């Protein structure tokens, strides 16, 4: 299903409005429409609709996040197939065979010139996660040297990190990569152990396939480079990872049995899961001393637990 750029932009606005209004069903309906679209590289660049879908891949609603992931995968496959079809169409047809044997009179130099002309006339198509990774060399990008070999290597590393799975323009990706390197260099005042460790941490987190939102927010400019370079590994984690960590921390608190956290059975609380009232509870100071204690409640019947202050 092919759709004009104008239609995609209108759909993108409707999707953003549904997100702002917090309407899960409207979001799913619009995503179903987008799922029928056959994506092209030109459409993705002009509409920038991939930015919104990238964010939705980490949505708290499982149905929304899964649908967004399916659409992104389909669109990447669409672009790869279109690129392969275009390459096949531009290949010269094989010469017709005949019973008579012909002698080639083409010189080696003319063959070389022909190959160079063909390479120069074929536009470079950025690759994605579905194909070879994008790098400064594969995108045929040249940049002004920093004057330091290790720093130049960092720029190349950061380019590959932010370009992973991206359809963004090469110049924008290079701008982000150079800005990241410059910010880290200024923070550590040289190429030292701190600089190397920070570069390694940034590269690993930006290349994480489970956290595409981080890359996309950096490329789009939503997450400023100077802020990215001051974030810890925990800060850079995906929303899914943060939610998982919060759940594990909460489980640890429920399982904690320290001094002053003795459990007592009561019927003061009603379980939201089974509606039973046979519960145990204990209290623990989880915030500052002047804040009220947190009450942890566990349903004896079904094992459900919750907390409140």
Structural class: alpha+beta
Task: Tell the overall outline.
Answer: flat
**Main β-sheet, in a few words?**
4 strands, antiparallel
Query: Count of helical segments?
Result: 13
Strand content: 5-15%
Question: What is the overall pLDDT average?
Answer: 77
Element order: H for helix, E for strand: HHHHHHHHHHHHHEEEE
| Tally of DSSP β-strands | 4
Q: Rg to the nearest angstrom? A: 28 Å
Report helical residue fraction.
40-55%
**Low-confidence residue ranges:** 97-130
Description:
The structure is a single chain. 54% of the residues lie in helices and 6% in strands. Strand 3 and strand 4 form a beta hairpin. The radius of gyration is 28 Å and the shape is flat. The chain has 13 helices and four strands. About 11% of the residues have low confidence. By secondary structure, it is an alpha+beta fold. The chain has three domains: 82 residues, Transcription Elongation Factor S-II, Chain A (Up-down Bundle), CATH 1.20.930; 91 residues, no CATH class; 53 residues, N-terminal domain of TfIIb (Single Sheet), CATH 2.20.25. A four-stranded antiparallel β-sheet has the order 1-2-3-4, with no helix packed on it.
């Amino acid at each position: 299903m092919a759709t004009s750029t104008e239609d995609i932009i209108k759909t993108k606005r409707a999707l953003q409005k549904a997100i702002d209004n917090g309407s899960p069903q409207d979001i799913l309906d619009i995503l179903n429409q987008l799922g029928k679209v056959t994506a092209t590289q030109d459409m993705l660049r002009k509409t920038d609709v991939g930015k919104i879908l990238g964010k939705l891949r980490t949505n708290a609603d499982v149905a929304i996040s899964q649908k967004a992931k399916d659409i992104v995968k389909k669109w990447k496959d669409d672009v790869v197939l279109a690129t392969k079809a275009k390459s096949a169409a531009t290949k010269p047809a094989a010469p017709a065979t005949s019973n008579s044997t012909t002698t080639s009179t083409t010189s080696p130099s003319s063959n070389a010139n022909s190959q160079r002309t063909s390479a120069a006339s074929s536009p470079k198509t950025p690759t994605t996660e579905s194909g070879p990774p994008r790098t400064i060399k594969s995108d045929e990008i040249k940049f002004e040297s920093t004057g330091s070999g290790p720093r130049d290597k960092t720029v190349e590393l950061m380019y590959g990190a932010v370009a992973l799975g991206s359809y963004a323009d090469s110049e924008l990706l290079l701008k982000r990569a150079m800005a990241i390197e410059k910010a880290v260099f200024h923070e550590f005042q040289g190429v030292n152990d701190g600089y190397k460790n920070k570069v390694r941490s940034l590269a690993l987190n930006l290349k994480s396939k489970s956290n595409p939102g981080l890359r996309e927010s950096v490329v789009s400019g939503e997450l400023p480079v100077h802020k990215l370079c001051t974030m810890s590994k925990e800060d850079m984690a995906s929303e899914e990872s943060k939610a998982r960590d919060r759940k594990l921390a909460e489980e640890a608190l429920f399982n904690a049995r320290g001094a002053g956290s003795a459990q007592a059975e009561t019927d003061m609380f009603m379980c939201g899961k089974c509606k039973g009232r046979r519960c145990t509870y204990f209290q623990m100071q989880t915030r500052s001393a002047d804040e009220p204690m947190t009450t942890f409640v566990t349903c004896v019947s079904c094992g459900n637990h919750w907390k409140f202050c």
